[in-house]
Design goal:
Order of helices and strands: HEEEEEEEEEEH
Oligomer: single chain
Number of helices: 2
Organism: Sphingomonas tabacisoli
InterPro entries: Ice-binding_C
Shape: globular
Keywords: Signal
CATH architecture of the largest domain: Sandwich
Radius of gyration: 22 Å
CATH class of the largest domain: Mainly Beta
Protein name: PEPxxWA-CTERM sorting domain-containing protein
Number of domains: 2
Length: about 200
């Protein structure tokens, strides 16, 4: 029974209703200066299952801390890539090739891919760490497998939406350092002006 529950939770990573997929930011944990864990959650809808290779991508995860992407779900691997080749992206959004994308890929056997609809399955346990604690909206992409008969069963389904990701907002300590630096630059500039006037 426990293995089935783990498999169900793992499968649930590629979620969303047919009209609008829903992946949400569950929490942000402050681990110390410039180190925040972003945890994501979602739902596998009744008319969807997963096959090996189905995936969820969260685009443009700013401030990504190398090696921090994680999946607590069985049969779901967690990786990053700077550019994701997907057939569709949320209107008004783009994939910045200079910012890592979080990629969660299902690697297990077919799960609820035919004979649906089934009960929806909620999941959590996916995320990564960032140097930023603020948030902004960016795109996500989910690839699942339709399970409802007859024509849609075992066909690929693409769903897109927006989700909160880290935003480049400096920590209060960083702001203080920046302001102090600007003050120091101002003092140096004033001193140079005064020295120039004395020489003149």
């Amino acid at each position: 029974m426990r293995n089935w529950v783990l498999a169900a939770a793992a499968a649930a990573v590629f979620a969303g209703p047919a009209s609008a997929a829903v992946i949400t930011l569950q929490s942000i944990t402050n681990n110390g200066p410039n180190n925040f864990t972003f945890n994501y959650q979602g739902t596998l809808n009744p008319d969807e299952g997963v096959r090996t290779g189905d995936r969820l991508i969260i685009f443009d995860f700013r401030g990504y801390i190398a090696g921090s992407v994680f999946s607590n779900l069985a049969n779901v691997t967690a990786t990053v890539e700077n550019s994701s080749n997907v057939p569709v992206i949320t209107p008004g959004q783009s994939d910045d090739p200079n910012i890592p994308n979080l990629v969660f890929t299902y690697t297990g056997p077919n799960f609820q891919t035919t004979g649906g609809p089934f009960a929806s399955i909620d999941f959590n346990g996916l995320g990564a760490r960032s140097t930023f604690g603020g948030t902004a909206f960016d795109a996500f992409f989910a690839q699942t497998t339709k399970n409802t008969p007859p024509a849609e069963a075992m066909t690929v389904s693409y769903q897109v939406g927006t989700v909160r990701v880290p935003a480049g907002v400096p920590e209060p300590a960083s702001w203080a350092m920046m302001l102090g630096g600007f003050g120091l630059l101002g003092a140096v500039a004033r001193r140079r002006n005064a020295a120039a006037h004395v020489i003149a």
